[in-house]
């Protein structure tokens, strides 16, 4: 058992026990309020470069299995827990959480009052932090890594099926998005984030999905022109980062939330029906409300009940829609699975819309 520390750029220091076999790592410290789903959270590529503080006091009690990974590799910079279970039990379990951290060279710290860290992040906003063995090492270098390059697929991946052909643009897509599309019988082609408009046209898709992904959506500004054209050619669904990119491509704006939404119980209201859905979320940026209200072509379809931020938008004429939350769930509620069904319906109706132009 080695002593370790979480140092925050606010000057706060937390002492705990080091997990994993990497001795030092730095990243944006974010908290997740989900009570379960640590495996999906740790393997969600949208967390690339971040240190995840789990609010739920115990992590690891049902181990890690083969089925629930959201990516093949872990891209996080570390986890911080109140308690870690070193002797988990579950019939599907293949390894412990600490085994997974070690296998991926990821750092961790346990035995820390994570509620205190959450209070600090809520007070100061998003903060940088460091997991280290040396509590006096308080320098924080600016991290300008472009993570999408690391998390996106390097080559085109094809999945055959009988339904409509969907091109999934991979900015660090969770596996659950692919699973949800295959579940809807879609033939899916996963393409790298920098695939050009012409290359996508050659694939002859029936619809496009823009995936989730890490970092500031503005880091992809050079691709916005192509994204706008693609969305105007094919029925499109954007999820999380994909949603932010659609908004930006069509003249909207994004801003950074003080400490983000990360958890499995975020209530969103559907404007059209007044229905409330409980959603799975993981984002630090958000589409600016005014920039959509002032946009002639888009309207807001969902908003967050806790802070009234934008949770979904739709084009007024074309079948382009996007959501900030995660309809693919995992972890978290599956209440918004119907978003995928609506998208497939849009694809069929979209054929008519585009043919009429
Ligand atoms: N899950 C996501 O796609 C996150 C989108 C973006 N990186 C954000 O933090 O807002």
TrEMBL record:
Its EC number is 6.3.5.5. It catalyses: hydrogencarbonate + L-glutamine + 2 ATP + H2O = carbamoyl phosphate + L-glutamate + 2 ADP + phosphate + 2 H(+); L-glutamine + H2O = L-glutamate + NH4(+). InterPro entries: Anth_synth/Amidotransfase (IPR050472), CarbamoylP_synth_ssu (IPR006274), CarbamoylP_synth_ssu_N (IPR002474), CarbP_synth_ssu_N_sf (IPR036480), Class_I_gatase-like (IPR029062), CPSase_GATase1 (IPR035686), GATASE (IPR017926). Pfam families: CPSase_sm_chain, GATase. PROSITE patterns: GATASE_TYPE_1 (PS51273). Residues 2-132 form the Carbamoyl-phosphate synthase small subunit N-terminal domain. One of its GO terms (biological process) is 'de novo' pyrimidine nucleobase biosynthetic process. GO terms for molecular function: ATP binding; carbamoyl-phosphate synthase (glutamine-hydrolyzing) activity; glutaminase activity. Pathway: Amino-acid biosynthesis; L-arginine biosynthesis; carbamoyl phosphate from bicarbonate: step 1/1; Pyrimidine metabolism; UMP biosynthesis via de novo pathway; (S)-dihydroorotate from bicarbonate: step 1/3. Residues 1-164 are annotated as: CPSase. L-glutamine binds at residues 46, 213, 215, 241, 244, 282, 284-285. Small subunit of the glutamine-dependent carbamoyl phosphate synthetase (CPSase). CPSase catalyzes the formation of carbamoyl phosphate from the ammonia moiety of glutamine, carbonate, and phosphate donated by ATP, constituting the first step of 2 biosynthetic pathways, one leading to arginine and/or urea and the other to pyrimidine nucleotides. The small subunit (glutamine amidotransferase) binds and cleaves glutamine to supply the large subunit with the substrate ammonia. Belongs to the CarA family. This is Carbamoyl phosphate synthase small chain.
């Amino acid at each position: 058992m080695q002593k370790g520390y979480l140092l925050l750029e606010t000057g706060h220091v937390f002492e705990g026990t080091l997990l994993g076999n990497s001795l030092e790592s730095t990243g944006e410290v974010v908290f997740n309020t989900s009570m379960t789903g640590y495996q999906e959270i740790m393997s969600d590529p949208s967390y690339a470069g971040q240190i995840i503080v789990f609010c739920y006091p115990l992590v690891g009690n049902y181990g890690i299995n083969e089925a629930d990974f959201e990516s093949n590799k872990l891209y996080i910079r570390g986890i911080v827990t109140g308690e870690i279970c070193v002797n988990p039990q579950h019939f599907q379990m293949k390894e412990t959480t600490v085994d997974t951290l070690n296998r991926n060279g990821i750092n961790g710290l346990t035995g820390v009052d994570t509620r205190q860290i959450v209070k600090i992040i809520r007070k100061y906003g998003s903060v940088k932090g460091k997991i280290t063995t040396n509590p006096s090492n308080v320098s924080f270098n600016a991290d300008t890594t472009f993570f999408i390059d690391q998390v996106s697929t390097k080559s085109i991946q094809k999945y055959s099926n009988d339904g409509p052909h969907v091109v999934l643009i991979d900015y660090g897509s969770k596996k659950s998005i692919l699973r949800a599309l295959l579940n809807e019988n879609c033939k899916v082609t996963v393409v790298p984030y920098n695939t050009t408009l012409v290359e996508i046209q050659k694939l002859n898709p029936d619809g496009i999905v823009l995936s989730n992904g890490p970092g500031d959506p503005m880091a992809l500004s050079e691709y916005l022109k192509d994204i706008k054209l693609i969305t105007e050619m094919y029925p499109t669904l954007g999820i999380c980062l994909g949603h932010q990119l659609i908004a930006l491509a069509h003249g909207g704006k994004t801003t950074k939330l003080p400490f983000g939404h990360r958890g499995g119980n975020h209530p969103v209201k559907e404007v059209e029906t007044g229905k409330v859905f409980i959603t799975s979320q993981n984002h630090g940026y958000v589409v600016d409300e005014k920039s959509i209200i002032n946009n002639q072509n888009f309207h807001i379809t969902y908003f967050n009940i806790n802070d009234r931020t934008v949770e979904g938008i739709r084009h007024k004429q074309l079948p382009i829609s996007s959501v900030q939350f995660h309809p693919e769930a995992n972890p978290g509620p599956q209440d918004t699975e119907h978003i995928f069904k609506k998208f497939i319906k849009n694809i069929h109706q979209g054929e008519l819309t585009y043919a009429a132009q």
